[in-house]
Amino acid sequence: MASKVLGIDIGGTGTKGAPVHLKRGELLADRLRIPTPKPATPEAIAEVVGQIARHFDWKGAVGCALPGVVRRGTVYTAANIDHGWVGTNAEKLLRGVLPEKPTVLNDADAAGLAEMRYGAGRRHKRGTLLVLTFGTGIGSALFKDDELVPNTELGHLHFLVDGHGGIAEHYAAARQREEHDLSWEAWAERVQLFLDHVENLLHPETIIIGGGVSKQKRWSQFGHLLKTRAKLLPAELQNNAGIVGAAVAA
Ligand code: BGC
Predict the structure, then answer these.
(1) How far is the CA of 29 from the centre of ligand 1 (A)?
(2) Helices in the chain by DSSP H: which ranges?
(3) Residue nearest to atom 4 of ligand 1 (CA)
(4) Residue 99, Cβ neighbours under 10 Å: how many?
(5) Once rounded to an integer, what is the mean pLDDT over residues 77-105?
(6) From the alpha carbon of 107, which atom of ligand 1 is closest?
């Protein structure tokens, strides 16, 4: 197994990459962030992925995380990237701009793998653990005894909100707080409803909250407002979890 892997995290707004030291779970160089092209078509993103690999003069293994369901390299959903991804074999496509065929997986699954190996999950490997990432959407990574159940997509659960049916991430993603200028308290109430719903469905022992909101200065604004039966922890790798986890998967 390679000890250094290039990790790339394709996001709704930015695409970020850096070489990762697999033993330590650390970035070996400052990450490069390129705004995700709009529309985020497969070809446009492939171009950006190639740019990141060239920037690091990369010759070895590459892992790529993206916001959609990925099975055996093929993308099946695209909520926050161009619909053209659906049905695309991402591993084959990105092979064209990389030194070797990459491993491609869901971004929240990648973040989860990173938290389990190097972050908040490393002391909670027994039992059911759920990582939820709050950003443009809501991502989820479910683990049973440290084994990932991929593509759970809990951010797309429908549940009743104020008497109306709604998609969880359209209500409680971090982007909703920013777009609707919600106070941390008002947003935390939304997250709480989502967490209640998820707990009633899965009864995890541990829940890790990831994404930019897990940074200490943000977590301190709302973490204490959330009440769960599960042990609730902020992620430790924060914005680099996707990069590190993509490298782990490769
Ligand atoms: C996507 C997921 C992704 C999450 C976080 C959702 O809209 O459907 O695949 O993990 O956003 O980026």
Answers:
(1) 27
(2) 42-55, 90-95, 107-118, 168-172, 174-179, 184-202, 216-222, 241-249
(3) 139
(4) 14
(5) 96
(6) 10
pLDDT band at residue 12, thresholds of 50, 70 and 90? confident
- By the 8 A CB rule, do 61 and 21 touch? no
Tokens of 164: 């109306």
* Residue 239, pLDDT score: 85
Mean pLDDT of 112-130: 97
Q: Is the pLDDT of residue 238 over 90?
A: no
- Say which DSSP state 84 is in: G
Listed in sequence order, the DSSP H helices in 56-141 are: 90-95, 107-118
Main-chain dihedrals φ then ψ at residue 230, nearest 5 degrees = -70, 155
Which residues, 6 or more positions from 200, have their beta carbon under 8 angstroms from its beta carbon?
none
90: confidence class by pLDDT, cuts 50, 70, 90: very high
* CA pair distance 68, 108, nearest whole angstrom: 9
Residue 1 confidence class, pLDDT cut points 50, 70, 90: low
Cβ of 245 below 6 Å from ligand 1? no
Residue 151 Cβ inside 6 Å of ligand 1? The answer reads no
In the numeric block, which tokens belong to residue 152?
Answer: 């759970």
